Amino acid sequence: MRHRLKLLHWIAGVLAGLIVLLVIAVALFDWNRLKPFINDKMSQAIGRPFAIRGDLSLAWRRDPALGGWHAWLPWPEFTARDIAVGNPSWASRPQFATLQALRFRIAPLPLLAHRIDVPTLQLVQPALDLERDRQGRASWTFTLPQGGAPSAWKLELGTIGFDRGNVTLDDAQTASRLTVTVTPLQGAIPYDQIVAQQSRSAREHVGQAMGATAKRSLAPTDESDSAVGQHGAADYVFGWRAEGRYKGAPVKGEGRTGGVLALRGGGSPFPVQADVQLGGSRVALVGTLTDPLELGALDLRLWLSGPSMATLYPYTGVTLPDTPPYATEGHLQATLDTKRGNHFSYRHFRGRVGDSDIGGDVAFDTGGARPKLSGTLRSRLLRFADLGPLVGADSNARKQQRGDATPQPADKLLPVEPFRTDRWRAMDADVSFSGERIVRDKAVPLDALQTHVVMDAGKLTLDPLRFGLAGGQVQGALRLDGGKAPMQGRLDLSARHLKLKQLFPDVQTMRSSLGEINGEVQLGAQGNSVAALLGSADGQVRLVMNDGAISKTLLETAGLNVGNIVIGKLFGDQTVQINCAAADLGARNGLFDVRLFVFDTPDALVNMDGTADMGSEKLDLTVRPHTKGLRVFSLRSPLYVRGTLKHPDVGVQKGPLLARGAGAVALGVVAAPAAALLALVVPSQDKNQGDNACRATLQALGGKNAGSH
Predict the structure, then answer these.
(1) Which pLDDT score, from 0 to 100, does residue 520 have?
(2) What is the pLDDT of residue 704?
(3) 166 and 233 in contact (C-beta within 8 Å)?
């Protein structure tokens, strides 16, 4: 027994001596002798020159941050000085990266299991020169060796520490040239302090750019202030500045970062902050980057502002409409995955577009055949001038400011400005929108807009498209296929109970009117502008109005040039009470045929027939007034309406006067259209208003069988 103990002590002593000798040998070994071997192996591994040009040394250090008994163990820490990584032969600069020094620790025990465990890696004064040529070759893409058996060794990195340094980018493909300089702060700044500073700064900028209303709309709330997780985030240690051009636009910005980036789960979130001026747009963010090796999770509060959302397209690839100046604030989360696509969500965002407010939740994914934008948007107050670009009603003034306005021909009334469908095929969309109130400069009472916008391979669909108008309801669907040339379009709308006194609130004679407008539009067309679409339209338009009034002044106010001339010829400048007005137009290849157009006044029944060619904008119409009974009506001869929409020619046809009381006989040919329009004569919602006055008129025009419709 005593002999065995003595043998064990001897073996233990030998092992201890060997460990001491090994430690001494390692400590005294001239590691510079390994530099040629390391340089050669690294150069082969990355496919370009690698060199440790300075001293390579080893020191044993303890790490109190580890805690427990691990904090008492010395760890081998290597320091390699003056490191250079070469560029590929095509690059304009010789070096891809240089380091004043690289320090890293290695855990000894994992080496026995073929694991190179590097708990900490410190970059001392790094400098990076990033370059990409027009052929798409990038200096940051390394040519790794192909074939051969996989290595038995596995590398594991814990954290990366940074130091002052600089990065330059020269990207010929995107016309970008940037210089980024990183410097240490005078002292560490707590995460929540930077969050508060960035919030105040962003709101002050919004207030200066868009006014106090926008500033108040982006005031802090409990929800937005707690949106970005702060718990466990490290302090800000370094500041950075960037200047140059990005995708051709001038860029200038600054921000702060942490000092240690954890590459494994469980480490402190890496704090980031940026405030960048890109062209006319401003991007500000503050938040954290967590687990960059696990798909790159971002958790940020983001502010965006600029002259138009469309200006973001070159930088983001997201197709957005031309808008007035905008500003938004929200919670951005992102998961970056080069294989399965990136996912971005902008949650609980609030903002303004012009004088309109907007908010909601949106997401952007890049994993499909095309990028896709989806989400839900809401607005309490939406000005039509701000909404217009969403539906192609952008103002000519704004287009002229951008320099992309299409001149309107002097002899054309219908807009020839083309739809910008080129970007429709760049991404897909699935967005629901609701607006409580819509304001238009000319006091058209719109409210309660609801629609579902779907963009799929260039096909734009608004279905349903529903909004309140003048106390009534308009609903239907709009479909535009921008993937075809020319663009294909389809519009289906129905209007019910539009109150005349609300539709024309500034017209004195309408204020006491109990009349309504009901109608239906079903049109299919092709073309890349409003003029082209109407010039090829097929379908029908039906409208019925009861108990209203009409005058030359009213039609001038409504912008109906042809109508005000006709009414002036018939009635002069006086306001005429309308018992009923009804229209049934059929369209084929842009030629609108007047199947029925009639309005009934106390003194006369007036009908119109003929055609209006929307392709050429030429008119060929005849207006026939019919005097009722013995009442005196100044004009009983037909009128002709020729010329164009822009320059109509209205005059009295030569020929015999119409026979008094012959209206019913002359209108017998419109029995079928009149009967069809009876479907639009709906009972009034107000029982005190009595029956719709158009029912009797259309029944008389349609014959005895019309009453059954």
Answers:
(1) 94
(2) 41
(3) no
Residue 543 has pLDDT above 60, yes or no: yes
Q: Are 292 and 261 in contact, with CB atoms under 8 Å apart? A: yes
Residue 587 has pLDDT above 90, yes or no: yes
Give the span between the Cα atoms of 607 and 630, in whole angstroms.
Answer: 19
- Classified as helix, coil or strand, 66 is helix
Is 479 within 8 Å of 464 (Cβ atoms)? no
The sign of the dihedral angle between the CA atoms of 524, 527, 530, 531 is negative
Greater confidence (659 vs 475) lies with 475
HSE (CB half, 13 Å, CA atoms) of 491?
Answer: 18
pLDDT reported for residue 248: 83
Residue 384 belongs to what domain range? 178-221+230-404+414-485
Domain membership flag for residue 46: no
Both 384 and 455 in one domain: the answer is yes
What is the Cα–Cα distance from 578 to 570, expressed in whole angstroms?
A: 14
Q: What is the mean pLDDT of residues 607-618?
A: 92
Domain check: are 460 and 573 in the same one? Answer: no
Are 327 and 471 in the same domain?
A: yes
Nearest to 178 by CA among 188, 189, 167, 186: 167
pLDDT at residue 494 greater than cutoff 70: yes
Helix (H) or strand (E) holding 2: helix 2-28
Mean pLDDT of 478-494: 91
Domain-embedded: residue 655: yes
User: What pLDDT was estimated at residue 579?
Assistant: 84
Q: Which residues contact 88 (CB under 8 A, 6 or more apart)?
A: 48, 137, 139, 143
709: DSSP letter: -
pLDDT at residue 8 in the model: 61
| pTM, entire model | 0.70
User: What's the total number of domains in the chain?
Assistant: 2
Phi, psi of 396 (to 5 degrees): -65, -35
* Cα angle 417, 457, 364; round to 5: 100
Find, among 300, 299, 302, the residue nearest to 284 by Cα.
302
Residue type, 253: G
- Residue 250 gets the label, from left (phi > 0), alpha (psi -120 to 50) or beta, of beta
**Spatial separation of the C-alpha atoms in residues 110 and 642, rounded to whole Å:** 94
Q: Which residue type does 287 have?
A: G
Could you tell me if residue 89 is inside a domain? no
Q: Is residue 142 part of a domain?
A: no
Regarding whether 534 and 459 lie in a shared domain, the answer is no
Mean pLDDT value of segment 343-364: 89
User: What is the per-residue DSSP string for 105-148?
Assistant: E--SGGGGGTEEEEEEEEEEEEEEEEEE-TT--BTT---PPPSS
Question: What Rg value do the Cα atoms of the chain yield, rounded?
Answer: 38
**pLDDT value of position 554:** 60
> Would the pLDDT of 456 be above 60?
yes
pLDDT tens readout for residues 683-705: 555 544 556 678 877 777 764 44
Residues 251 and 397 both lie in one domain: yes
CA distance 193 to 197: 6
Task: Report the distance separating Cα 542 and Cα 672, nearest Å.
Answer: 13
433-448 tens-digit pLDDT: 998 877 765 556 677 8
Q: Report the chain's mean pLDDT, rounded to a whole number.
A: 78
CA atoms of 320 and 301, how far apart (whole Å): 21
